[in-house]
User: What shape does this take?
Amino acid sequence: MTEETGAGRTRQLPVFHCPYCGDEDLTPHDDGGWRCSACLRAFAVRLIATGVQR
Ligand SMILES: [Zn+2]
Assistant: This one.
């Protein structure tokens, strides 16, 4: 049985802006990353922490 808490909602949402050039023309890339059609960079978004502080 899986228990769903408020901090457990880590579903990945689409990226809307390229972190390098700011363009919005992004398409899904292999391995779960994104590819920017403007600057042709491919990048991945990785969760490194949640907002919970201890
Ligand atoms: Zn870009």
About this structure: The chain is about 0% helix and 15% strand. Residues 17 and 24 are 5 Å apart (CA to CA).
